[in-house]
Amino acid sequence: MRPLRLVFDGGHLDVARGEELRLGRSRGWAPRAYRLLADETSVSARHATVVHTPDGASWVTEVPQGASNGTRLNDRVLRPGSRARMHDDDRVWLGPRVSFTVHGVGRETGEAREPREARETGESGETRETGEAGGTREKGG
Question: What is the pTM of this model?
Answer without folding.
Answer: 0.76
